[in-house]
Write a structure and sequence with these properties.
The protein has 273 residues and is an alpha/beta fold. The chain has one domain: Nitrilase/N-carbamoyl-D-aminoacid amidohydrolase, CATH 3.60.110. Belongs to the carbon-nitrogen hydrolase superfamily. NIT1/NIT2 family.
Length: 273
């Protein structure tokens, strides 16, 4: 099946972001994409100072638009981190997924908050305004089961392992790595998660805006289970496409059967929820 990643240029105007995103979703559908993913923070600038201002409840205005365009195009739509979600007085970094009938299939709240300090380069603390999610998020398609993470979640190998153990063959990470962590780790982490779990990894970023307070790395990427980059964007707004070949995935797992060779008598991943 064909996967499309929309690397969107994000402005400060929510309505413009949403309109442009829906237009690119329609374009991707017209080119045969069955699963379409939007980037983290596609509907608002990325920064702790923006989260409260742009927050919405789910369902709400933005998710309603995503539901409508998913149904119109008869696709599976991964809504990036469409908006900061407000719920019970707390804010979450939330990704929603809609099916071809417009129904919400999954709602992933970012599990690992981006609190880092690289002296002289970048300091960021999502926990100043956001609360963490507390669950894994998966959804089924006629093609395969898909697992969800958001940006910083990709650094935690255990999360991807759980998804692999639960039968996911594609993991999608809307993300917004920056100009410090992006060139160092963006592709490296994707290739690592793909090879470790013999799954496809898709990571979709906003386009780069040098004038923004937080500058995204861009370079939305798809990696196959062999660790090969099979699609990659530059820094500008674009849509990239790739065909997810589940036969190839099955062949790789047969050739190097690491999933059946794990020493569960010596180690294992324990899930709490």
């Amino acid at each position: 099946f064909r996967l499309a990643l929309i690397q969107l240029h994000v402005s400060a105007v929510k309505s413009e972001n949403l309109q442009r995103a829906c237009g690119l979703v329609r374009e991707a559908s017209a080119k045969g994409a069955k699963v379409v993913a939007l980037p983290e923070c596609f509907n608002s600038p990325y920064g702790t100072q923006y989260f409260k201002e742009y927050a919405e409840k789910i369902p709400g205005e933005s998710t309603q638009k995503l539901s409508e365009v998913a149904k119109e195009c008869s696709i599976y739509l991964v809504g990036g981190r469409s908006i900061p979600e407000e719920d019970g007085g707390k804010l979450y970094n939330t990704c929603v997924v809609f099916g071809p009938d417009g129904a919400m299939l999954a709602k992933h709240r970012k599990v690992h908050l981006f609190d880092i300090n690289v002296p002289g380069k970048i300091q960021f603390k999502e926990s100043e305004t956001l609360s963490p999610g507390n669950s894994f998020s998966m959804f089924d398609t006629p093609y395969c089961k898909v697992g969800l993470g958001i940006c910083y979640d990709i650094r935690f190998a255990e999360m991807a392992q759980v998804y692999g153990q639960k039968g996911c063959q594609l993991l999608i990470y809307p993300g917004a790595f920056n100009l410090t962590t992006g060139p160092a780790h963006w592709e490296l982490l994707q290739r690592g998660r793909a090879v470790d779990n013999q799954v496809y990894i898709a990571a979709v970023s906003p386009a780069r805006d040098e004038k923004a307070s937080y500058v995204a790395w861009g370079h939305s990427t798809v990696v196959n289970p062999w660790g090969e980059v099979i699609a990659k964007a530059g820094a500008e707004e674009t849509v990239i496409y790739t065909d997810i070949d589940l036969k190839k995935l099955a062949e790789i797992r047969q050739q190097i059967p690491i999933l059946s060779q794990k020493r569960c008598d010596l180690y294992g991943i324990e899930t709490k929820k």
